[in-house]
Design a protein that fits this description.
- The protein is mainly β.
- It has helices at residues 2-9, 35-47, 51-56, 67-72, 169-182, and strands at residues 77-84, 88-92, 95-108, 113-125, 138-146, 200-206, 218-229, 234-242, 246-249, 252-261, 270-281, 284-285, 288-290, 295-301, 309-317, 320-329, 339-343.
C-alpha cells in the first residue's frame, strides 16, 4: 500500500487548478474542516514546496519511510490537475473514516502527461477521546494507479463500502455549464491567490401566477459564480435551475443610454439621460442577491470613488428575474446623486 501511494503521490505538484505557477506564488491553504479540504491543503503544501507540512497531513502511516524520500518523490513534476468524487464515510471504534475518490492528470517537466485514479482514506478520531495536542482529520492511507480513462472521466464512482454522500445535481450541472462557457474567460483563483470558493447557492420557492391555493410551490435554484475582479469592480455570472428547463444562464437587461453634458464636457453638468434601447449582459458588476426581497442588484462604478455609476435591480417573479429599476449617476462631481431612468417596480 505504501509503495502504491508513493508512486501516485510522486506526481502531485503545483496548483490544483492545473495552472503552472511558481512555488512562491502558490496560495497557502491549511483547511482541515473536512476530508476534501485536507486533500486540497495537502496539495497546497506540495505546491509551495512545504514538504514538512505536507508530510504532517498523514497520520502514523506515512507514504514512504522518511521525509527525504518523500521530497525526492516530487522531482520531475511540473504541474497537476486534481478532481475528487463523492465522499463516503464509515464510523468505527471511536473514529470516522472518509473515503475520497481522486483522479489526477500529472504533467512532467518533459511535457508528458499521465492520468492516475484511486482512493484516499482519511480519519477523524473522536475529539472526546483525544488527549492534547488535538489531532484533526488526517490522511490514513491511499492508492492511485495509472488509468487509461480520460481525465474528465477517471474519478472512481465510489470508494469504500458506504454509499457516497449525495451530490447536489443542480449545482454540479451549473458548475459544468460555467466551466464550459467561462473556463478560459474568468479568473482561475481569487485576487489574493486563494482557490476559488464554491458558488453562492440559493433556493427560491414560489407559485406560478394564477396557481390555485392548494397547488404546491415550485423551486428555482440560483447560483452566483465569481468571474473576475479589477481595481474597483467585481463581475459575477448567474445560473438558475428548475425542474422544467434544467440549468440555464441568466441574461440581464440594461438600457442603452444617450447622455448629454453641458458643452459636451463629460466632467460638466448632466443635461439629460435618454434611454435609446435595451441590451442584455451576461455578467453583473458588484452584484449580490437579497433573499428577503428576492432581488439581484448590481453597481457598476465608472471610476473608483463611485461618484459616477450605474445600478440595476432585478426582481424574481414567476420563475425568472426581470429588470425593475435602473439608476444612473453620470456626473463626475464627487457626489453620489443617481437618477432613475427605468422604473418597472410595480409587479404585473
Amino acid at each position: 500500500m505504501r509503495s502504491a501511494l508513493f508512486a501516485a503521490t510522486a506526481f502531485f505538484s503545483l496548483a490544483v487548478t492545473g495552472q503552472p505557477v511558481l512555488a512562491a506564488e502558490a496560495p497557502y491553504v491549511d483547511d482541515r474542516s473536512d476530508a476534501e479540504a485536507v486533500i486540497r491543503s495537502f496539495y497546497s503544501a506540495i505546491n509551495r514546496q512545504e514538504f514538512a507540512r505536507a508530510w504532517d497531513y498523514f497520520g502514523e502511516t506515512k507514504p514512504v519511510q522518511d521525509l527525504d524520500a518523500f521530497v525526492k518523490g516530487y522531482d520531475g513534476t511540473e504541474r497537476v490537475e486534481v478532481k475528487t468524487g463523492g465522499v463516503s464515510e464509515d464510523g468505527a471504534a471511536g473514529s470516522i473514516y472518509y473515503n475520497v475518490p481522486v483522479a489526477i492528470r500529472a504533467t512532467a517537466k518533459d511535457g508528458s502527461e499521465n492520468v492516475f485514479a484511486g482512493c484516499y482514506t482519511l480519519r477523524q478520531v473522536n475529539a472526546s477521546i483525544q488527549e492534547p495536542p488535538f489531532r484533526p482529520i488526517f490522511i490514513d492511507k491511499g492508492a492511485l494507479k495509472p488509468s487509461k480513462a480520460e481525465f474528465e472521466d477517471a474519478v472512481p464512482a465510489s470508494c469504500g463500502d458506504a454509499p457516497p454522500r449525495k451530490k447536489d445535481a443542480a449545482l454540479e450541472q451549473a458548475k459544468k455549464a460555467f466551466a464550459a462557457t467561462y473556463g478560459d474567460q474568468c479568473d482561475k483563483e481569487m485576487p489574493s491567490g486563494e482557490p476559488l470558493a464554491e458558488p453562492d447557492a440559493y433556493s427560491l420557492r414560489y407559485k406560478d401566477a394564477g396557481a390555485e391555493a392548494d397547488q404546491p410551490e415550485r423551486e428555482t435554484r440560483l447560483f452566483r459564480f465569481f468571474c473576475s475582479m479589477a481595481a474597483y469592480n467585481e463581475s459575477a455570472v448567474y445560473y438558475v435551475y428548475d425542474d422544467v428547463s434544467g440549468v440555464r444562464q441568466l441574461q440581464f437587461a440594461s438600457p442603452e443610454l444617450d447622455i448629454h453634458y453641458e458643452n459636451n464636457d463629460s466632467e460638466g453638468k448632466v443635461e439629460a439621460i435618454n434611454v435609446t434601447g435595451f441590451q442584455t449582459d451576461d455578467q453583473l458588476v458588484n452584484s449580490e442577491y437579497d433573499d428577503a426581497t428576492k432581488t439581484i442588484s448590481s453597481l457598476n462604478k465608472w471610476r473608483g470613488v463611485g461618484d459616477a455609476a450605474s445600478a440595476g435591480t432585478y426582481l424574481f417573479r414567476n420563475g425568472n428575474f426581470s429588470l425593475v429599476q435602473y439608476d444612473v449617476d453620470a456626473s463626475y462631481d464627487g457626489e453620489i446623486n443617481p437618477q432613475t431612468v427605468v422604473d418597472y417596480n410595480t409587479p404585473p
